[in-house]
Amino acid sequence: MNHRLPLFAAGLLAASSIQAQHDAQRPNILFILADDLGYADLSCYGNEYIRTPYIDSLAATGVRFTHCYAGSAVSSPSRCTLMTGKHTGHSTIRDNFVMAGGIEGKKGDQTIRRMHLQESDTTIADVLRAAGYRTCLVNKWHLDGFNPEATPLNRGFDEFYGWLISTAHSNDPYYYPYYRFHGRELVNITENADGRHAIHNTDLSTDDAIAFIRRNQHQPFFLYLAYDAPHEPYNIDDTHWYGHTPWEVNTQRYASLITHMDEAIGRVVAELDTLGLRDNTLIIFASDNGAARQAPRETLRCVGDLRGMKGQMYDGGLRVPFIVNMPGRVAAATLNDRIYFPDVLPTLASIAGAEEHLPSALDGVDISSLFYEGYKDVDTYSRMLYWEFPGKQRAAIRGEWKAVSVKRGAPLELYRISTDPNETTDLSSLYPEVVAEMDSLMRCAHRPSPNFPE
Question: What is the value of pTM for the model shown?
């Protein structure tokens, strides 16, 4: 026995060393999501008014996608497709509100119904946690509906710091909250007591993110950092970046929310550098949908020349920034490949070596080869991308064509987006056979949902 103990200990050390090497080869994953950020709100996407130097740096030294499409034109369904890899023809949550099922609750004085992510829905956090990643969501979940048992901690996340729909006052007042979830406990942000504006939500979220990174620097982690900015109401006291402009106050605040978030992202990246984690951390930045109706879209050119806005399935509501950065691994490039949110789950599973934990039926594909050294073995052009607000709007893109209807019962419009990316000329009357084909494909992409009766 005395001779075997050293051998046994040596075996444990060797196994531990092998595990440590394996963990070191798997990158940490930091997914940063803005809220209602327009396609052209960033300097690196052509904005001439809003300063975003830290995000611009990620784009300049990484991959900037010009044709990324969100999962939907509003928050909850978009985040659902991001988390589950299923488009809104198949996903549990297809709109912010549902017509049947779900749970009834209040939005202001209005009684509404919301659907929540189900236990049967496999999330990115489920997949990566099963592969040995420590998982954390900071700030906005928006997939709990009015169900307090559908929190991030019930859907694959080890840690959660933020707010929930099911606990309305957990983010009240917006951007300067007095309450905030730390795990399952609702804590007080004492600095913001009595209506004070001492700590902005963007700073709270950034502090929580940095604390998580510090605690988990010695193991692989997945951090989903979902900022509120620049979602309305445009509530930020510090507008020094744009105080000299002739813009109205809300425009200054909108731009300030974005620049403030940009500086916060700079803080997170700097922390990764300080801890020696930067070279082994994959960073992805995106927005959940296009700029909102309340945004200063004309003054600041939030969606550029794209048609539409949040809530509409024209490209102004669906196309979003998507930036991927990892020093030494992801080469600097601008790619026109067409990608969308259902691709994120299979892609991150591939990068983490977690494919065995993926559910069988996904609508997205692994696009990781686009990140690394310019490999392009994915056909992102001829496949169909699909979206729906059941009974109200639907859209699909395939090849050179986009078919879309943004009004209940309206016929499909048809745009040749290869030459008309701004959707200015409806060609449906000239190509009825293309409309019929797209309509057939879209009907096949739709699966009935009990929450949206046919």
Answer: 0.94
